[in-house]
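Dear colleagues,

As part of the handover before I leave the project, I'm documenting each prediction I ran so the next person doesn't have to rerun anything. This entry is a single chain, and its sequence is reproduced below.
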Amino acid sequence: MKNNISQQLFEKAKQYFPGGVNSPVRAFRSVGGVPVFMEKGKGAHVWDADGNEYIDYCGSWGPLILGHANDKVLSAVSKTMQNGTSFGAPTRLENELAELIIGNNRFLEKIRFVSSGTEAVMSAIRLARGFTGRNKILKFEGCYHGHSDSLLVKAGSGLVTFGNTSSAGVPKSFVEETIVVPLNSMQGIEEAFVKFKDQIACIIIEPIPANNGLLLQDRMYLQFLRDTCTKHGTLIIFDEVISGFRIGFEGAAGYYDIKPDIVTYGKIIGGGFPVGAYGASKEIMASISPDGNVYQAGTLSGNPVAMSAGIAQLTECLKPNFYQELEAKTKLLVDGLSEIHTNNFKVFSIGSIFWIAFTEKHHIKAAEEIDAESMRYFKTLFHQLLESGIYLGPSGYEVGFVNEAHTSADIQRTVEVFKESLI
């Protein structure tokens, strides 16, 4: 595989950016080697600066559910851009995308567009605190909710703990408002609500945890969290930045048929453009400024280019059998990979999301169940796949995504390359 140009670009990038990148995982620290600098993408394929072609299962970390440079999305964006790219004022496109989302989602009555998943989650936390009048939030070890201060907290040594910051620059006072509990622990939840009675504003969870492996939870556990929040006057936030519109149009909430109080979404609602959203009932959303006293704003919120891309993409997602066909493609891939019996190689999946792991376990529901030593196997596999034209996210903790643009030939080739690399 040629990589001279990527090497040159990376050396130059290190002069401008910390670690030579604008987001840490791109630096290839987990897998070693030089980051691949991408040049273009079309459908399920991407090409790097050296001209190498790959079948892509990263898809910009999930939002490109139609594949790269989808013709309908490009056409909508091009048409919108002829009229301007940003106004800092309302446009009819915001109404159209909101109507498309709310009209096909039982769990939302009003939403607010923002510019990223991190911003959506940060705003949802503030909303939960403002609505309940409480300060403390509860999150789970192994779930990632963006890089806002109160959520960069990892578990301490106890079952229920304030934990420790996972980043320099986060004040201890922020940590002391964030309770961290192990995933899949009912006991931890019960203890937290005894210890912090009437203090917890919200529980936030990825209902399909997919930022630290694919840690699939039982529906019973998610329902337990819903019931516990109802009992204690606490809100439950489903962080669906990854699972939203991926598992189905209603995301994990629809998949499990559990109503969250607040839901957050990411770039998938903008066709891959920088966008996010949070939504809830009319009652809860009435707390948001200018109607209420919970302040949140953004110059690029509801940006017309992102709105038009989102309308085009989500309209396609509403086609008959869209999600069934996407899941069938994923099953074809997962079944093919699951036939490879070597080195405790396993594939976990839900909808069009999959995760490859080197483990003896048939179910992994918590971050501490992932063997850190197994990542050395992924490191080797990653580079073998890269050499053979398969691109995954450069970390063994990251999930992969099947998009509408993947063909049977793409999937067959992928399975063949995996076999060649693993056996």
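The CA atoms of residues 225 and 231 lie 10 Å apart. The two ends are 21 Å apart (CA to CA).

All the best with the project,
I.
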